[in-house]
Fold:
Amino acid sequence: MLDLMKLCTKSANIITENNIVIAIYPGSFDPITLGHLDLIRRSSRLFERVIVAVLRNPNKRPLFTVEQRLEQIRLSTKHLPNVGVDSFDGLAVEYAQMQQAQVLLRGLRAVSDFEIELQMAHTNKTLSTQIETVFLATSNEYSFLSSSVVKEIARFGGSVDHLVPPHIALDIYQCYNQKSLASNPNATNITLPCESP
Ligand code: ADP
Structure:
């Protein structure tokens, strides 16, 4: 498979002199799910280096701070030696250029993802012809899974143990527990482990 990927990237002229293909996997990862992690694990077998890049997006109100998300991802990927974790702001293409990466990696869950992802890939191509967007289809068992689904379940007190790694499930439960405590007018001195919506 690595050879096939090499062949494709070679014909697209994106292999560097040192024969290394670096892929950036950009996203919000608020929080990272088993679906994201499945994609990261599979892509780590295709590329010499994969950088999971958390977008610092001032327009979104996340559940977890960027620093918390970075730590969650680091813990979840520590068994994959060629996977790095970083954050960026601005354009993913510019970040990829800065990292000397040749590939932007995106996951496809359903046709609904495809429309927006294809538009984004075309847009990015207008910004840099050197960077290729590579789509990986999600594994079947995670095709329904998104960070929003995880948050929605947890918000209503459901279990997310089967959707995220155990340490992240704990972070989520703590976060929503604290939130419900904080909304109690009698509660004092509450420090939230996550961003306050
Ligand atoms: P964004 O805000 O960029 O959509 P996300 O964190 O939601 O960020 O997703 C980042 C990338 O991961 C996207 O390419 C998305 O399609 C992909 N992705 C999300 N959920 C899954 C999943 N369950 N399986 C595979 N890929 C996924």
Q: What stands out?
A: Strands lie at 22-27, 49-55, 83-88, 103-108, 132-137.
